[in-house]
Hints:
Blueprint: E1 5-9, E2 11-14, E3 24-27, H1 30-38, E4 42-46, H2 52-60, E5 64-67, H3 91-107, E6 111-114, H4 116-124, E7 129-130, E8 154-158, H5 163-168, E9 172-175, E10 182-183, E11 190-196, E12 201-206, E13 212-215, H6 219-222, H7 230-243
Parallel strand pairs: 1-4, 1-5, 5-6, 6-13
Antiparallel strand pairs: 2-3, 7-10, 8-9, 8-11, 11-12, 12-13
The site of manganese (II) ion has 9 residues, from loops.
Amino acid sequence: MSKPIVGISGSIVAETDAAFAGYERAYANDDYVDSVIQNGGVPYIIPVNSEEEIIREQVAHIDALILSGGQDVCPQFYGEEPHKLLGRTSLRRDKFDFKLLQLALKKDIPILGICRGMQVINVYFGGTLYQDLSLAPGSYIKHNQVTDWQVPSHYVKLQKGTKLFDIFQCEELEVNSFHHQVVHEVAPSFKVTARAKDGVIEALESQDYKFLLTVQWHPEMLHRTEKQMNKVFARLIAEARTNK
Length: 244
Ligand SMILES: [Mn+2]
């Protein structure tokens, strides 16, 4: 049986090396690629572009989608002015991610949103974000860890009776944390599936779509050191296989 093709939303990085300073490169972090391979899928990085017809063709070729991490979502998409603590945004990438998501939903393939990907999905479905953690009442945990990325730093509590709980089969999970924004209002038709101990929302899932899950942490960065993190990729790929 052929392996499912897992699309990974790409990003753009401007080269800092002097000879090509500012030169744009299309990329995705290699950990997404390896997480897909280690769990039985075939990874394809989907480059950012603004052509709807091209994005439609890109989606036509994938069996599952990972919306990857990255910049803050432009607050205009949830009706807010940019707060002074807003981080770097990319309007080009927002537009691409929204179109990619729209077309992937139409095809009804399994989707996993990671970090920025979770925020993109929440905003797409009508939710909002705190533009910075300091604006989230009660938050006291460091969610932007300055330790190694493959080391977990805080706990999340999983909600029973959710797909996420079904995947991990435990009530508490140690995760890494590289975000300074968090979900504020949860999009209608989504439910919270995990929270940090300070109440910060760490995972969501759709109640309408068959498999539309989001996590605020980075399971791909942990997949070698914290073996259970592979489970979320394994499930995404298993869903893609039954969908094929
Ligand atoms: Mn966190």
